[in-house]
Amino acid sequence: MGRAANRLVLGATCFLLIITGLAGCGAGTAHIQEADALIENGSYSEALDSLEVAENSGEDKRLIHRSRGIAYMGLSDYYTAIEEFIAALSLSNGYVRDMDIDISYYLAVAQYRTGDISAANETYSAIIAIDPGESDAYYLRGRTYLMLQDIDNAKSDFDKAVKLSPDDPDLYVQIFEAMSGAGLADDGKRYLKSAMELNTKLTSFQKGRLYYCMGDYEGARQSLESAVSEGNDTEAILYLGRTYEALGDTNYAASLYRSYLEGDPGNAQVMNQLGLCLIDLNDYNGALDAFEKGINIGDPAMDQSLRFNQITAYEYTGDFDRAKTLMADYLAKYPGDEEAIRENDFLSTR
Predict the structure, then answer these.
(1) Region 96-110 average pLDDT
(2) CA triplet 185, 189, 192: central angle to 5 degrees?
(3) Residue 142 exposed, middle or buried by CB count within 10 Å (0-12, 13-18, 19+)
(4) 234-246 and 250-263 helices cross at what angle (nearest 10)?
(5) Mean pLDDT of the 205-233 span
(6) Closest Cα partner for 68 from 56, 80, 79, 76?
(7) pLDDT tops 70 at residue 193
């Protein structure tokens, strides 16, 4: 039976960008701005309606295609999003470099979501060709190289990323997590060691996350407890909970997540982690409730993880018919998920 995926969306690993405000504030973009505000609020269908009005009103075609692409991504229609981003890029005048880069990042995300890793890799290469100083593009291209089993180029890109952003501890952690996910945790630890050398520049949360990744859970607990007392933000809670799980106190981890959700019930990340924690506690019905609530929050960055974990929870309950139905829906939305394809092969035997 498959294991629930601990697919936390932390930092740049979420592969979901935000509205950058490139639409400007001129009178000729009023409906586009309205659409972008709707997108930020998760109202993607309504945003598309506003963009149709914008098009009929003769507003900026390039910005319309860009915003449509983002809206379609929110609706998990990545193929249509790709068409929109390509249309936006085709309208480039060759001078608005920042806009080209912005749209290209979105395009790469959409390509990645469809499972076309090679295309995403090429798009990140195009970004680097426009601006060789884009640290994020090197990091993200490195991730695609990992998925393409090109380890040497992945390491080269990660090294270039940290050379461009040597004082960014989050980047070091993201590289480690990417390499760890590819079975290269030992290689990835050298990045963690480099990050620890930034000691005087690290926050309590950053120290705690580094300790966690290095397997020093007691050090992680102490730093993350301080981080939570300082701000109680989502990432600190997630890592503190995961630390207690690693220390064997899963019940306390679950209580941390529940306590946090009392004040922020619309946090899909924490809801997802609570569900995973409850699976470990063999509370499968509780896990299903958490995943269902998380899905209903409508956070596109967490939708894939929540739906996959929901399927796994149904498997644990023995309801394979329900799991098969949900898996068919899942693969229709996320056809490039190789782990889900393997899990579907398992389900087909039940």
Answers:
(1) 92
(2) 135
(3) buried
(4) 160
(5) 92
(6) 80
(7) yes
Contacts of 96 by beta carbon, 8 Å cutoff, 6+ apart: none
pLDDT, tens only, 5-16? 553 333 333 334
d(CA 294, CA 182): 27
For the chain, how far is it from start to end, CA to CA, in angstroms?
10
How does DSSP assign 87-149, residue by residue? HHHHT--S--HHHHHHHHHHHHHHHHHTT-HHHHHHHHHHHHHH-TT-HHHHHHHHHHHHHTT
DSSP 8-state secondary structure symbol assigned to residue 58: T
Q: Is pLDDT at 96 greater than 80 in this prediction?
A: no
- Tokens coding 277: 């924690």
- How sure is the predictor about 92, in pLDDT bands with cuts at 50, 70 and 90? confident
235: how many CB neighbours lie within 10 A of its CB?
A: 20
What whole-number distance in Å separates Cα of residue 324 and Cα of residue 295?
18
Place of tokens 């306390």: 252
Look up the CATH number of domain 10-130.
1.25.40.10
What letter represents residue 239's amino acid?
Y
Q: What is the pLDDT of residue 15?
A: 39
328 contacts: CB under 8 Å, gap ≥ 6: none
pTM of the model: 0.79
CA distances, 324 to each of 23, 124, 154, 315, 349 (Å):
43, 35, 35, 9, 11
Residue among 287, 286, 228 at smallest CA distance from 260: 228
- Reduced to 3 states (helix: H, G, I; strand: E, B; else coil), residue 350 is coil
Q: What is the mean pLDDT of the chain?
A: 89
Q: 286: burial class by Cβ within 10 Å (0-12, 13-18, 19+)?
A: middle
Q: What are phi and psi of 33, to 5 degrees?
A: -60, -40
**Per mean pLDDT, which range of 9-13, 35-39, 211-215 is the poorest?**
9-13
For residue range 262-320, what is the model confidence (pLDDT) as tens digits? 999 999 999 999 999 999 999 999 999 999 999 999 887 899 999 999 999 999 999 99
State the Cα–Cα distance between residues 329 and 280, nearest whole angstrom: 25
